[in-house]
Fold this protein.
Amino acid sequence: MSEEASSITNFENDVLPHLNAAYDLARWLTRNQQDAEDAVQDAFIRAFRFSAGCRSGNTRAWLLKIVRNVCYSRLQKNRPQDLATPFDEQLHSEQGHSVSPETLLLKMEDKQILMQALEELPVTLREVLVLREFEGLSYREIAEVANIPLGTVMSTLWRARERIRMLLINYPNKPSLRRQVAAGTDEQHQNWAASGGRVGW
């Protein structure tokens, strides 16, 4: 087998299994199917180009970092307003502990509402939440993918969860949803108290 053929085979074996994760992240960051597909295609071309000398042991995190960088470049070029969305601190002024979006997803009858709430997050919050809750990356892996300090990962994740909670509580014309979110919050408080104040996300 030639060196080129071997490189292609290795790339297919190592990287292609993470295609779905790459698309999911791109779709959440761009909020557009066609943009996500284009970003993933671009990311895979870049990944193949640099796969020989630049890939670390964690292929998935390495690929998602490339996808993330491609998406940010495209947003900066075509939709810079998405990257400039301000973070409203007033939405986070309440005392207490946020409910995991994963917990809310399991409790809610209308899962589409949660998806809409996620899309309303600023991209910097949305990416960290998606990488943690949906892709299952560790804090250190998220820090590597997003190129931010570990402490920033944790604080951003908290802010994203809290923003989701507030969006769902204030969702118009959905009193049943507000009751579900409130119930989830009470349950989370009880679990937090029972654990001695440790956060178990």
Notes: The domain at 3-83 is CATH 1.10.1740.10 (Rna Polymerase Sigma Factor; Chain: A). The chain has two domains: 3-83, 89-194. Residues 86-102, 105-109, 175-201 have pLDDT under 50 and may be disordered. Residues 7 and 52 are 8 Å apart (CA to CA).
